[in-house]
Design goal:
It contains 7 helices and 12 strands. It has one domain: Phosphatase 2c, domain 1, CATH 3.60.40. A hairpin with a 2-residue loop joins strand 7 (129-134) and strand 8. The chain is 25% helix and 32% strand. It is of the alpha+beta class and 233 residues long. The protein starts with a strand and ends with a strand. It is globular, with a radius of gyration of 17 Å.
């Protein structure tokens, strides 16, 4: 159903993820991406789950939150609900809200679910960018979320819509997205309609992408089983 590219941009390759990375806003931050591919018949009915997350202020104690939160959302998204009326995506977010009840404002976190009929569900907290690329246009579908949560829930809202064949969905940490705009990478991604050209774009920008840190996921929507491609810089 999609081709998926995962990029981790890192200006200090000698440092491990557990050490954190210098943040342009002071202190250190940590980031990661997760995508989960359905395996069983039921999971295939649910679709594909994508997550991009970034801790604003890194510490060894809270670094594990990113992976733990992703696993919670994944568990309930792919778990058969007790009641048919329950939405597994919303259920996963509800459980994540309980887990993160004392952690508001600590991180940027976005999650996207794409169903087998190309329906999309989106939720986020913080400044992760979620961009729909359709044709040669870009739409900031994550801009509909309030910068300041209107309730005590980390993920208070879900936005739903439908994708078309040929659409691309980009999820990026704030520094990466800002650099994509500054270095005209967004313009090239808007013009890129074929997955085979994505790696070439970043190879040509190799020196530039080593100058910032962060991560992104880019999914091309197609009418065939998902193929995963992993690239790291």
């Amino acid at each position: 159903m999609a081709n998926v590219f995962e990029f981790h941009f890192n200006p200090l390759p000698s440092r491990s993820f557990n050490e954190g990375w210098p943040s342009p806003h002071g202190g250190e931050h940590a980031f990661d991406t997760f995508y989960f591919l359905p395996q069983t018949f039921f999971e295939k009915k649910q679709g594909y789950l994508f997550i991009v997350a970034e801790l604003k202020n890194f510490s060894a104690r809270n670094q594990a939150m990113l992976g733990q939160t992703a696993e919670i959302i994944k568990k309930y998204f792919y778990q058969k609900p007790v009641f048919v009326s329950h939405d597994p995506f919303q259920l996963g977010l509800n459980q994540a809200n309980d887990f993160l009840s004392d952690s508001q404002g600590m991180f940027n976190f976005a999650t996207v679910a794409i169903g087998p009929k190309c329906n999309i569900k989106v939720s986020k907290t913080g400044d992760i960018k979620i961009i729909l690329l359709r044709g040669q246009e870009a739409f900031d579908i994550g801009s509909n979320f309030s910068a300041q949560p209107l309730s005590n829930k980390v993920f208070p809202d879900v936005i739903e819509g439908n994708l078309q064949k040929g659409d691309r969905v980009l999820m990026a940490t704030p520094e990466v997205f800002q650099s994509f705009q500054t270095e005209k990478i967004m313009e090239e991604l808007c013009l890129c309609n074929e997955p085979k050209f994505v790696k070439q774009i970043f190879k040509e920008k190799k020196k530039i992408v080593r100058e910032f840190s962060g991560a992104c996921l880019l999914a091309f929507i197609k009418k065939r089983p998902i193929i995963s491609l992993l690239s790291r810089f």
